[in-house]
Amino acid sequence: MLKTIKQWLSAATDMVMPRVCPVCGRALDSDETWLCRQCLSRLPRTRYEEVDFNTMEQHFAGKVPIERATAYFFYEKGAPYASILHDIKYHNLPKMGRWLTARAVHDMAGSRFFDGIDAVTAVPLHRSKLAQRGYNQSEYLARGIADASGIPYIEVLKAVLPHSTQTHKGALERWQNIQGNYVLKKEAASLAGKHILLVDDVITTGATLTVCATALQAIPSIKISLFTLAAARLD
Ligand SMILES: [Zn+2]
């Protein structure tokens, strides 16, 4: 009975203020959560987790030691699936991200990608950015993985300088600018000898993940794997 009332209310809300699929713009059915069934089934998966020494892992080779890396789906700037990332980051819909990464854990179950991982953490936002946006989208993504896998979420890194001035700088300057932007929190001490999964929303150049993973390297005998919700084509 309760479920029926809930479904009825949800259907009534949809009539007044229809929820739409961020990818195709179609109104969602009451049983569709964030994306319509069709766009979800056509999600351009990378399936990196099914490949040994995949393109994303190759990208970090020689930069920072990592165990495994994967991204859930490919995106191209301006393409329909990129709107998911935009909504998560700027349109106050981080819960959609949390739902998607929980889904990713189930989708990737056959790959054993999450096996042996002791803790999940997120690329942090500087507190001024956090105050402006109100949330860290990567934390929601990491928590979605924790929800679905049962692996605990932990905050290990702290951003010490804002990223906001980097947009117009060249690659080298940008690189130098983010070096040293992340420091370890005291909670990091508990991770000695553990395997941690570092989560971010997207990978484009990989610069942010490299700098964060390098900071995590200061933890004795740490193993680091990487997960992003989306990846620009890296090859
Ligand atoms: Zn759709």
CATH topology (fold) name of the largest domain: Rossmann fold
Q: List the bound ligands.
A: zinc ion
Radius of gyration: 18 Å
SSE order, one letter for each helix or strand = HHHEHHEHHEHEEHE
Terminal-residue CA separation: 52 Å
CATH class descriptor name of the largest domain: Alpha Beta
Give me the secondary-structure category: alpha/beta
- How are the strands ordered across the major sheet? 1-6-5-2
Count of discrete structural domains: 2
Helix proportion range: 25-40%
Indicate the mean pLDDT. 89
CATH architecture of the largest domain: 3-Layer(aba) Sandwich
Shape: globular
Strand content: 5-15%
Report the sheet with the most strands, covering strand number, pairing sense and barrel closure: 4 strands, parallel
**Number of separate helices:** 9
Task: Provide an overview of this structure.
- With 235 residues, this protein is an alpha/beta fold.
- The protein folds into two domains: 1-42, no CATH class; 44-231, 3-Layer(aba) Sandwich (Rossmann fold), CATH 3.40.50.
- It is 37% helix and 14% strand.
- The chain contains nine helices and six strands; from the N terminus they run αααβααβααβαββαβ.
- It has helices at residues 2-16, 37-41, 55-60, 82-90, 94-107, 127-133, 137-149, 171-178, 207-216, and strands at 69-74, 119-122, 157-159, 182-184, 195-203, 223-231.
- The strands form two sheets. A four-stranded parallel β-sheet has the order 1-6-5-2, with helices on both faces. A two-stranded antiparallel sheet has the order 3-4.
- The radius of gyration is 18 Å and the shape is globular.
- The termini are far apart.
- The protein binds zinc ion.
- Zinc ion binds at residues 21, 23-24, 26, 35-36, 38-39.
